[in-house]
Amino acid sequence: MIKRLAISIIFALQIFFVVYARFADEKFFCWAPYDQISQYKINVFINGGKLSKAEIYNRYRKNPNGFENRNIDNLKFLLIAVEKSTICNEDLRVELIYSTNKRNEEFWILESPDYEWICVK
Amino acid sequence: MNGFVSNNQGIGLKALVLYVLVFSNGLWRKTIFELPFAPFIGVIDFVPSWIYVYMLLPTFLVSALLVLLGKYVSISLTTFGLILFFLIMSSINVFSNSLTFTCLVIILSGLSLKSSYIINIQVSFLYIGAFINKALDVDWWNGRFFDTLATLRHPMPLFEFSSQYFNGLIVAQVFSISSMFIELTLGVLFLMRKKIAFALGLMFHLGMLILTNGKLSVLFMFIMSATYLIMIRDKYITNSLRQPLSQFLIYFWFVSLTVWNFRNKILEFYILMNDM
């Protein structure tokens, strides 16, 4: 009985996430591998100084430039999640420059004036 | 059969456990040194790292060992799968579709070792979910996605050759639309327990590997081969798979994919080092 309930919950959650993905930007747990390809570059400035590639990798555990094989919003979700969990007392600016499926380059910026996160799309 | 319902189910599940232990992009290192890091659920951030190192990791390894030895298979698979799920939830960087799918197949197998149809449903969810996500993206219909994949991400010689004679975007459209409908067909066939689904699935994943010169989805081929083995219950096929030659070919297949994956990883590492 408990096993059947657990199995039903596992399948119900998957249906939920496939539907939820239609209304959310990021696409996790909804079976969307390789749904789009984005070539990206991350720049990070702290107190006006630019972080090196290795420093960016250490901060996000993600290559500072390369390909994102899932939705580009998944990468934005990671950058925001890392910054949210960082007690930050510095002036931060994260730039994400990307091109999805060979379209024109887009810029996404995450800044921290007065510790308040503002995402400008 | 050593705790498993059939010999091929045992090989498939052990292969999935080995995939998690060996190929899952530094899961060990992340578990010991990094987790939790940017978790999906904020409260996981408060889980101390010693829980990962001294509680979760040993339990994870013991349950993996028990699965590999074929002892207490059901409980070991469930434990292994649940810990893996917690590790995935502990970091956005740990998440991948392949790892999540593997995790669910392992948990579901642990919960219902005797019923293979549960895994059929899971595989069906995977393919139909992939179809839905792709079908709702305009770039999968106009060929833009496949064109990017075939020219920028994983250059495909066959695509470049055919683009000389036809409009590149039209060729890309043919590839992407047929991929979507093959995935939908696979989802339906697995739900209906049709044996032809195994052949079609293997051809589809093998086709992707050939098109991309063995660069895309080597590990996904590994995972799906293992999952297909878990699902096979037909007595004639299971008996055939027990023959020495079949056993040799199955192991040879998994070893070949493993070697090919390491080759790809070394190349990726070389490119990354040059870039850094």
Topology:
The complex is a heterodimer of chains A (121) and B (276).
Chain A: H1 2-20, E1 38-46, E2 49-50, H2 53-60, E3 65-68, H3 72-84, E4 92-100, E5 106-111, E6 118-120
Chain B: H1 7-23, H2 27-34, H3 49-69, H4 73-89, H5 97-111, H6 117-135, H7 138-141, H8 144-153, H9 157-165, H10 168-191, H11 196-211, H12 218-231, H13 235-241, H14 244-275
Characterization of the model:
The complex is a heterodimer of chains A (121) and B (276). With 121 residues, chain A is an alpha+beta fold. Helix content of chain A is 33%, strand content 27%. Chain A is built from 3 helices and 6 strands, in the order H-E-E-H-E-H-E-E-E. In chain A, strands 1, 2, 3, 4, 5 and 6 form a 6-stranded antiparallel beta sheet that branches. Chain A is elongated. The model of chain A has no long low-confidence stretch (mean pLDDT 85). Chain B is mainly α. Chain B folds into 2 domains: 1-113, no CATH class; 115-276, no CATH class. Chain B is 77% helix and 0% strand. Chain B is built from 14 helices and no strands. Chain B has helices at 7-23, 27-34, 49-69, 73-89, 97-111, 117-135, 138-141, 144-153, 157-165, 168-191, 196-211, 218-231, 235-241, 244-275. In chain B, helix 4 (73-89) runs antiparallel to helix 5. The longest helix of chain B is centred in the last third of the chain and has 32 residues, at 244-275. The mean pLDDT of chain B is 89. Chains A and B meet through helix 1, helix 2 and helix 3 of A and helix 5, helix 6 and helix 8 of B.
Task: Describe this structure in a few short sentences.
Chain A is an alpha+beta fold.
Helix content of chain A: 25-40%
The average pLDDT score of chain B comes to 89
The biggest beta sheet of chain B is recorded as: none
Q: Largest interface, counted with CB-CB under 8 A?
A: A-B, 41 and 45 residues
Terminal CA distance of chain A reads: 48 Å
Order of helices and strands of chain B: HHHHHHHHHHHHHH
Which quaternary structure do these chains form?
heterodimer
What would the principal axes of the Cα set say about the shape of chain B? globular
